[in-house]
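Record format v2
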Amino acid sequence: MPAYRVTTTTIALTDSEVVGEDGISPFIRHLGLAATNGVARREEAFVHEMGPPLNLPGVMRADVHATAALNDDERRKVKSFVERHAGEHKARSLGKRHSYCILPHSRPYPSEDEYAYTQFSCAGFVIDAYAFARIDLLDLGSTPPISLADVCQAYPDQTAALQIEKIRNENGLVGPGPWPIALCGYVIHAMNRPPADIRKSQYKPKPSDASFP
Amino acid sequence: MPDLQNIGLQKLIEAARSRQARQGSRRKHAQNTVIHDLGCDDSGANQYLIAAEIEGKRRNYRGIELPSADPQSERPQTTWGGVAEEALARWVYHTVWKKSEFLEVAAFEPLVETPLDQASLLDRLAQSTGTEKRNLVCDAETFNFNQTQRKRLSPMLWAYILEYRNSKNHEDLVAVGSAIRKYVAMLDASQLGQLAELLEPGYRASLSPDLQLEVAKMVYRKFEANPPVQPEPQPKLAGQLWDIAQAYLNPHVLLHDKFATIASLCIEAIVAMRSRVSDDAVKAAFNTPYKWFGEMVGDNLKRLARRWQAKNTEAAKWCDGIVRN
């Protein structure tokens, strides 16, 4: 199975495979790209993940594991994608201001004309890394609109912050919602298909795909 | 979220006692100790600050003025953590220690930190040195500045780049990379030739690969947003990027370190400048023994042609032709 729920205490990961972490299970709240090859403790999988800041590598719990059976060429492209953005986010770790966006899943900051660095959501970082390797996981034009309550489920640490309109706006959530956000669960469902299908067609997520049972 | 109002006094006193036991430790460590002894992680503290703000308590909670939080932040790993820790620590200090037998633990001075905005960042950047300066340079990248502020910031960033570009300290180089990005982002495309100075080998050492990557990437981004009306606007810069690309395109070294990424960015920047060496550069990318490398460069240049389509159809057509040939 290309995507599955991890039930063991250890997990065998290959570089650039996708790891998901539960919020209130089975809602998937966080994603990362495996940073190493080998066996890891489920509680401490080494990943490249958009914290914020982008941690290269960071550590997260591997509740779900998804693979597109990347070949070596695709893995090299993903590596290059990470290298292109690494310095931008290391700088965020040194400074006092983080950078993140919820909608869209990634965007040039502060603008296309003065593009200094890229903001990502955690799912957006994975989506763009795979797109760089010619694997378009999601049909981003058909992501279901979700309400503020669902957004809070995706960002449980930020439930209070998300009640503040200014903070929502800074993260791309303009207006009263709902918003077509690319949720982590959608990525896992997109990868829960045969590898050939993952490459052949973009996955059209359903509202129930926010969770991965 | 921990409800701090419901945390028992006894627990706070235990926290203070624990702090007293560590009286000799540094203040930051002591703050962390208090937070952990209270059973609150940074995230909880962060939530507390925001909740307090929503309830209108942030400015004056139990008679204590709390610091501002940075709404840009997501998780309190650095500043927010620091601010939240400070808020909690001050609260504990004022509400418990001052009223308890631990009053003598006065070494725990309340911190005062002005929230960072553009004006204060520029003032502090002008006066700071060392680590503080390095961190402020990184923060500058996250702000929008008006024209007056840009005139002040740009020379400071350029001076920082020149001073630290050969540093052996990794974090200094991260900050130089940040300064390069912000400096170029604010620069007019016609002035990009200035970057040739950075790529010139033989100053003291050649620019580190990480910084070569940032320069090439920013040249590409600048011309991606502003397609050159005439080909070859910066011949010297294009020549230097081509030199770097050729060095890394050697099949024996291309797969090492970040060399493939740097080489691809140099080639993409050369094409984005519509340089006369674009044809050679793209052919070189397609002729490496590594198919994925040519594909990656080709994909990025097709994306560039699509982006240029709305801005300069002639440039877009030229770029498309370069990839197809």
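Chain A has one domain: 3-204.
Chain A has six helices and ten strands.
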